[in-house]
């Protein structure tokens, strides 16, 4: 699936440690032949020097304790057609993906993907944890959560992504995926996911 990606990662093969880091990516073909993570090759243009890509994130949430989150906005600039990444809490622009790298994208997104990816190298390795390392059924303050999931409609209005338009999909036996829930609370529409890995 072509397009930009944003989130956080733990990747010793890239960063040389096990810290949690802010990351972006882009691809035109699901990373089979094109794409890049952070700013390792031409693509994403960083404009904010206070929030560098690859910087480690701190503080982190504590199991059954204090929770922290990140609120991102991905939006297409109608004047330039570039796709912008904005940290929504302060509406800080982090950077953008130039329109030229997405040769097959239309002027709007027709598919959104939320979730995680976990993997390992070597035949003796095991699948690493994902999210908090705890399964979705553990719920609030324990399992990893995506919440306030919204999109911008054709009238430029923020709307909650409805459950009827969501197709849950999990390929892992080491992690879990909870139901997509329309909470009608400050959490908005949300789901839990993740797990301990180890298989």
From TrEMBL:
Q: What is this protein called?
A: Uncharacterized protein LOC120280504
Against Gene3D superfamilies, the record matches this protein to: Outer-capsid protein sigma 3, large lobe (3.90.1320.10)
The source organism is Dioscorea cayennensis subsp. rotundata (White Guinea yam)
Q: Which InterPro entries match?
A: Glutamic_endopeptidase, Neprosin
Top-level taxon of the source organism: Eukaryota
PROSITE patterns reported in the protein's UniProt record: NEPROSIN_PEP_CD
Q: In what residue span(s) does the Neprosin PEP catalytic domain sit?
A: 1-199
